[in-house]
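tokens incoming
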């Protein structure tokens, strides 16, 4: 089925609304923390989130992307795919937990008298599951469940818990409570839905060895994307002057990346279709979907970014006057997001059309450049240096991927004014 511009808009509307609820809850969450506890507490919370995300990369093992590919392929038994994915994540989570437990304080899990190792250990396994299993809902077209579990419910529960406690518990602990509540709901819901699948006798054999083989390149490229999204906040915490800078910068990142809700909403619809149409060799239909999705992404993203750039100081002042010093970083990050929107869904296209190894190399190269730039620029320019490093790398991998897709697949992903 070909998705027209109108059809794509209608299909992504519900996705957009539920994602918007999640983002709005997240903003209220951070706003209340900033007003009641200040930028330092936000910085501590952001540093924990970065550590948790980095620690979950290995246990996820690229499954958050590859499972879309497996579930969308009708040649595999879906129940078998889910069970072996869960088994893999459980084993890798336990291995990672053991490493952090014994060596955490020797690495980056201790900073300014804050010890993060046990907090990460306690939340790692449910967090890993929450980042992968909802992708099964997405692959099956159940976008509401996908967004609620992966993006919306945790900040909502975290917000409710911290408000009910009258801020007597830390944002990190309220977040962990939220993770566990959503994890339990997800397990119950998944059991009712996924294990009712009827096994097919004519399905191809799906082994853990094959799962690892396909997922490994996506682990590397996916880990690169996660690192690039959070490495600036992480390195500000390591080489920056204070957790307050991390807190202010993290708010800037959240504001700038709020525009990616458009990209996310569209990707949620087209990702399974990309895999399906490419496997079916329906290139003309694939080209049409990609072109329509990029138009929709850019048309809705551009006005939002213009507003964020023009009123950057006033928007940051909403979180408190001390946050206004981040306005230059916010502008730089918004420029990077503009290029990201103009290039279209290049990440998913690369990974779901057999080019995941090339994408992996691009992302890892950009990650290396990002780290070098952060090491050099953060001590001199602080959060502005972190923003510049992040935006340069975001622009670089988007543009390279865009040209590669044009050259290799003869598909135009970029926005055209016509």
């Amino acid at each position: 089925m070909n998705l027209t511009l109108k059809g794509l808009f209608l299909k992504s509307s519900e996705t957009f609304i539920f994602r918007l609820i999640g983002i709005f809850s997240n903003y209220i969450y951070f706003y209340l923390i900033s007003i009641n506890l200040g930028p330092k507490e936000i910085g501590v919370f952001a540093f924990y989130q970065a550590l948790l995300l980095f620690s979950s990369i290995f246990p996820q093992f690229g499954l958050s992307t590859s499972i879309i590919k497996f579930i969308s392929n009708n040649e595999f038994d879906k129940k078998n795919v889910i069970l072996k994915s869960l088994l893999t994540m459980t084993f890798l989570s336990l291995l990672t937990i053991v490493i952090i437990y014994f060596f955490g304080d020797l690495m980056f899990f201790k900073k300014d008298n804050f010890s993060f190792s046990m907090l990460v250990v306690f939340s790692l396994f449910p967090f890993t599951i929450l980042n992968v299993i909802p992708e099964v809902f997405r692959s099956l077209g159940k976008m509401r469940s996908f967004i609620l579990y992966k993006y919306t419910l945790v900040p909502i529960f975290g917000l409710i818990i911290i408000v009910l406690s009258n801020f007597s518990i830390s944002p990190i602990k309220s977040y962990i409570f939220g993770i566990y509540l959503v994890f339990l709901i997800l397990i119950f819901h998944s059991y009712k839905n996924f294990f009712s699948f009827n096994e097919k006798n004519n399905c191809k054999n799906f082994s853990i060895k094959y799962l690892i083989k396909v997922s490994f390149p996506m682990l590397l490229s996916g880990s690169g994307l996660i690192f690039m999204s959070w490495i600036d906040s992480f390195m500000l915490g390591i080489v920056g002057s204070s957790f307050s800078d991390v807190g202010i910068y993290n708010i800037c990142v959240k504001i700038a990346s709020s525009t990616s809700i458009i990209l996310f909403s569209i990707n949620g619809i087209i990702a399974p279709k990309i895999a399906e149409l490419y496997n079916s060799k329906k290139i003309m239909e694939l080209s049409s979907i990609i072109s329509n999705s990029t138009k929709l992404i850019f048309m809705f993203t551009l006005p939002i970014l213009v507003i964020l750039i023009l009123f950057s100081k006033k928007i940051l002042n909403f979180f408190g006057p001390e946050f206004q010093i981040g306005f230059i970083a916010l502008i730089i990050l918004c420029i990077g997001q503009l290029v990201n929107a103009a290039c279209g869904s290049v990440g998913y296209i690369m990974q779901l059309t057999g080019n995941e190894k090339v994408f992996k190399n691009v992302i890892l190269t950009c990650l290396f450049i990002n780290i070098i730039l952060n090491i050099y620029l953060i001590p001199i320019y602080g959060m502005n240096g972190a923003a510049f490093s992040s935006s340069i790398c975001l622009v670089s991998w988007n543009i390279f991927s865009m040209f590669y897709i044009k050259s290799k697949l003869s598909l135009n992903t970029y926005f055209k004014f016509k």
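note: The first strand starts at residue 110 and ends at 111.
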